Amino acid sequence: MAAPARRLLSAVSLPPRTLRGQLTAGLVVLLALACLMVGVTTAFALEGFLVRRLDQQLSASGGKFAASLEHEATPDRDNRPDTRGQSKGTFGARLLRGTTTRAAVVGKEGDVSEVRLTSGDRLALAELPLDGKGHTLRLSALGHYRLEAVKGDEGDVLITGLPLRPVEETLHRLEWVEGAVFGAALIVTGTLAALWVRLSLRPLRRVTTTAANVAERPLASGEVAMPDPVPVTDPGTEVGQVGTALNRMLGHVGNALERRQASEERLRHFAADASHELRTPVANIRGHAELALRHKGPVPAEVERALDRIQSESVRMSRMVDDLLLLARIDAGRALEREPVDLTRLVLDATDDARATGPGHRWLLDLPEEAVTITGDEHRLHQAVGNLLANARSHTPSGTRVTVRLAHDEDGIRLSVADDGPGIPEELQPEIFGRFVRADAGRSRAAGSTGLGLAIVYAVVSAHGGTVGVESAPGRTVFTVTLPVSPPATPGAEDRERDAGA
């Protein structure tokens, strides 16, 4: 019981988090304070009015009842207290030289009952000022009374009082009535306030929905369609000003995204056109270099070295042009092949190629017993796996152990390439899949790297609907590729399949 109670108290004590809840709670709290002030003021005013009425009654009585208590009854004389015109509960007392000689109270039908006073009551009665004004005092046997003390004819003090119980009962009834009325008013007002605040904040909810919609859109790259502007009914209000500012911001963001998309499109077209146009002259340069090297006549050593360099650089340039053209085609959304691919056989072939190229490394395979088959572009997937293996070979020393694992789990097909080489610098890991990124520029260029291998891996895997990541530390680097069994359709795939069927 203690734990639920604590949770309930904590939930009640916590303020509402939403603006709508805060505004509604604020209105209800302000109304509750106003009701409290009205109730307290009304109670004090009514109490003062009723007490003044009692004081007027005490002054009007003139102490008749208390004066009739001056003489006690004797056998030859019946001096009964005068109760004519006295209301039920009227108190009377006679004090002689500070000592209470007699105290009585009027009962039903005008009968008189003696009152037993305690020593505290007698002392309090003796201390009443003789100012002819009412004073509140609590008598042990009777409760709270309004008392007035005046001087008698024989040098005594006559005290007359009226009970405060009717006043207290009236105040209690007023409190109950005010509590019920104010409680109902708070409930009704709280409900109406919640509805009114909800209606008033409807434009703000539209602003929030639009902002959330923009936040969920992939703004990093590609063509992005911005949502419709928020309708602004009254730009003079705070909500209208927020909506106007959001619409202005959406316009700026949309214009910036359109300019960026146009710039990216121009860059893609340029890369594709330049790569396509460069293929022919690069091939011609390579062909002429090979033809010159096949010349049967004597060739000076310097010329032969120059021709060798021309041929090697033309080969490297051809690879770079092919890589750039591939990236440009993928960026342009060119459709991939969609055919069954034996990924197990593909990994075996790519590892055999890597083993032949890097015999100094230790190449290990961890493949499932059953063949793993997916739908995709076999040529592009082979190129991506080959780039991962080439990256491990190029950036680790001879003798490094490279392990290729292939598994089929609930997330799809998982391919990992791990090595125990020196690792990738931590500051380079966030941009390792960028274009023209090299861990060691000098060594990479000497090895013939273009800095596009991992960029192609990322582009091919993303085009297949998969993901690729890297975890690296000194002594262990793991590239992990996750592919769906069937990649999503790419733009133009349906048209290409329809053309193939025709």
What's the helix and strand layout?
Layout: H1 2-13, H2 19-61, H3 64-67, E1 91-96, E2 99-106, E3 112-114, H4 119-126, E4 135-139, E5 143-151, E6 157-163, H5 165-200, H6 202-216, H7 238-293, H8 301-331, E7 339-342, H9 343-357, E8 362-366, E9 373-376, H10 378-394, E10 401-409, E11 412-419, H11 441-446, H12 453-463, E12 467-473, E13 476-483, H13 493-501
Parallel strand pairs: 8-10
Antiparallel strand pairs: 1-2, 1-6, 2-3, 4-5, 5-6, 7-9, 10-11, 11-13, 12-13
Q: How would you explain this protein's 3D organization?
A:
α10 runs antiparallel to α12 (453-463). The model is unreliable at 73-77, 441-448 and 491-502 (pLDDT under 50). The chain has 13 helices and 13 strands. It is of the alpha+beta class and 502 residues long. The relative contact order is 0.06. The strands form three sheets. The chain has a six-stranded antiparallel beta sheet with strand order 3-2-1-6-5-4. Strands 8-10-11-13-12 form a five-stranded mixed beta sheet, covered by helices on one side. It is rod-shaped.
Label this structure with key terms.
502 residues, alpha+beta, 6-stranded antiparallel β-sheet, 5-stranded mixed β-sheet, 13 helices, 17% strand, rod-shaped, disordered C terminus
